[in-house]
Amino acid sequence: MSGQKSRVRLTAGRVTDFTCPPGKSQAFLWDTEAPALALRVTPTGRKTYVFESRLNGATMRLNIGTAADWPIEKARGEAKRLKVVVDSGIDPREVERQQLAEKVAAKVAATARSVTVGDLWPLYLENGKPKRKDSWKPRYRADLAAMAAPGGEKKKRGQGVTRPGPLYPLLALPLAGVNEDTLKSWHDKEAQTGKHQAARALMMFRGFLRWCASQPEYRKLTDRDAGKAPAILENLPPTTRRTDALDAEQIAGWWAGTEQLSNRTASVYLRALLLTGARREEMAALRWEDIDFRWRRLTIADKVEITRTIPLTPYLAQLLATLPRVGPYVFASTGKAGRIVDARAAHGEVLKHAQVKHLTFHGLRRTYIRRGRNVASDGVPAQMAGHSPSAVADGYAILSMDDLRPQAERVEAHILSLAGVQFDSASEPGKLRVVAG
Ramachandran region of residue 152, left (φ > 0), alpha (ψ -120 to 50) or beta? Predict the structure, then answer.
């Protein structure tokens, strides 16, 4: 700090009249009332208030502000405040850096708290695949998207436009605002439209919360257990296990109904479901490249594993070989997907013909497993249908193709006998000769 200082009581007039002497890079005019305050002027005429003091044996000089922006009294008051800070052994520059860091952190936190469910939902669909899986199963992925759809699209069937999905109202909520109260309010409202749909949407949203909680940047914003609150769970509808299946005496009527369908693709598709126990999406996605007519094998996209290969039984081989090859899919369609997507209308006709009041596609799968257990070893129908060994009560040993084939053919023959169908198993695929018994 210079020993020769020009000191006066700073006034508006003195601030205006003070100039930088020729040949100097800067000049200072020190205040007598606040000795640590000075007015600095440069050759360009820029005038700035500065604070100067000593801390830990070193001189420090801080800019307070320009004379145009800071009235004299305000600059004097700031200099006195800084002098108190320095005299207490604190570096005001460090205080300023800390305050700036706190402001930045507060701004980041505020920005994070403003992240909405809708901001993260697309990321969840892209990255939130189940553990040990490469991707979502297509059907479940489509259901996730539909649950959060805004609606307003023209209905594919009937008049009017689609309603928003049950999860759509949650997209506008900040993730940090999703808690027991908000979810209960949302669920109670959605349950008025459909209890089971609301319950399924809740289960899906709980998966979203689990994913958010697993991401470091969203973990502190996520109430992972919000969807498990007793106030919500106690109002969920009871889960009832479906048991629909064809009785043995109903199979003949159902089979005859499939043969009456004008759409042969749908007819074969429905019968293929009953003859394999496959899930409807697994069979609908079957491609010609998945069928090995020579070695009589069928490769199916499995729900549990990536694929499963099962024996192509004789009658099913005959059925599939009679379908026209008009694209990559066995059950081809002129629709956008290029394959059969929804056979509910055709199945409805079949049920009406058979005078069966209710039967889901999964009921056909259940029928296959029940009937198959009557004639095959334990676990054979389940392995054919794609159950994992742990999915059945007592588990079962995975059979090789050679061991599985004769038993799978036995199950097929049993179902055909219940349907009243006889056929020449030695005939060449594509030349089906069926005789009603």
Answer: left
DSSP state of 55: E
- Which residue type, as a one-letter code, is found at position 410? R
| Per-position b or e across 145-162, b if 16+ CB within 10 A of its CB | eebbbeeeeeeeeeeeee
Is 367:419 a contact under the CB 8 Å cutoff? Answer: no
Helices (H), 322-400: 344-354, 361-372, 380-385
Nearest to 149 by CA among 128, 170, 127: 170
Residue 134 is predicted with a pLDDT of 65
Distance (Å, whole) CA 161 – CA 151 = 7
Pairwise CA distance, residues 50 & 76, whole Å: 10
Q: Is the dihedral of CA 147, 151, 154, 160 positive or negative?
A: positive
Q: Are 78 and 57 in contact (CB under 8 A)?
A: no
With 60 as the cut, is the pLDDT of residue 197 above it?
yes
- Write out the H or E segment, with its range, that includes residue 299: strand 297-301
pTM: 0.54
As a whole number of angstroms, the distance between CA 374 and CA 297 comes to 23
Confidence of residue 415 (pLDDT cuts 50, 70, 90): very high
Q: Cα–chain-centroid distance for residue 285?
A: 23
Stronger pLDDT, 233 or 117, i.e. the higher one: 117
